[in-house]
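Lab notebook, design round three. We kept the backbone fixed and only want residue identities now. Task for the bench partner: fill in a sequence for the structure below.
Input structure tokens:
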């Protein structure tokens, strides 16, 4: 009977959480759509401002500021800060659960046991990610409203505010919506990379094999890393571990060294 090697990479693929990424993108789209709706609800006030601006030029800046404040109130009434935090916590939990399923399935395929692991770091990591993403995602409406204020101010100065104001707002919205989608893609990959690193290194896995998504979106330097082995404590030259670089969807396949790993497991566990 052929003896199992002491050091090997499991054959089972460690999958990327594309479903979680789509969930975050769905939420990002809802947030940006809501901010656009809040702005459109005040368009008539902007147009009236353009008509009357010559009669009250001294107070025009105050009028713009007042309308922008009302738009922000409308937005905050539709999606509160508490709702944003709660949704991001849910997404972080989904990412954690998906990563845990991949971890247990891959390790079970290699060791023939279900691994049970105490993870005291998990809540702290999820909370840090939620806090950072609440900060990131709320910069989208902040920048959007800053751009809209600029569009209105310039339009009043050159007399073109009523000409295609809605179209101008849509163009600014398009930029904001794309940026929100990119944040969603990037941040799910980063969280997945962190979870993978913590779970593997906690049981003594020191190295991994780089695995890309093998599609046209893979950047050339990451394609060059496909199938190569790296240590967790020594990132690739000029880069970071899988998932950590911007918009990276790569994953780390564990290099299992039976003489170094330590775990608690139960043979014949439930299948994921």
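Proposed sequence:
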């Amino acid at each position: 009977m052929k003896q199992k090697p002491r050091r090997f990479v499991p054959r089972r693929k460690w999958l990327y959480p594309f479903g979680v990424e789509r969930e975050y993108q769905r939420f990002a789209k809802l947030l940006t759509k809501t901010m656009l709706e809040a702005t459109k609800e005040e368009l008539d006030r902007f147009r009236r401002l353009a008509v009357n601006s010559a009669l009250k030029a001294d107070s025009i800046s105050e009028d713009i500021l007042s309308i922008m404040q009302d738009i922000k109130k409308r937005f905050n009434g539709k999606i509160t800060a508490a709702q944003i935090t709660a949704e991001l916590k849910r997404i972080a939990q989904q990412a954690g659960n998906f990563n845990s399923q991949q971890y247990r399935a891959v390790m079970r395929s290699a060791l023939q046991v279900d691994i049970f692991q105490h993870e005291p770091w998990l809540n702290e990591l999820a909370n840090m990610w939620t806090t950072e993403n609440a900060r990131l995602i709320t910069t989208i409406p902040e920048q959007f409203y800053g751009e809209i204020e600029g569009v209105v101010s310039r339009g009043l100065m050159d007399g073109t505010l009523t000409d295609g104001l809605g179209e101008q707002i849509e163009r600014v919205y398009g930029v904001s919506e794309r940026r929100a989608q990119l944040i969603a893609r990037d941040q799910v990959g980063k969280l997945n990379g962190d979870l993978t690193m913590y779970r593997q290194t906690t049981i003594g896995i020191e190295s991994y094999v780089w695995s890309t998504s093998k599609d046209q979106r893979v950047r050339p330097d990451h394609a060059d890393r496909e199938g190569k082995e790296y240590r967790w404590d020594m990132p690739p030259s000029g880069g970071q571990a899988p998932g950590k670089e911007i918009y990276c969807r790569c994953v780390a396949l564990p290099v299992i060294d039976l003489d170094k790993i330590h775990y608690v497991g139960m043979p014949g566990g439930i299948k994921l």
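Keep this in mind before ordering anything: The chain has seven helices and six strands.
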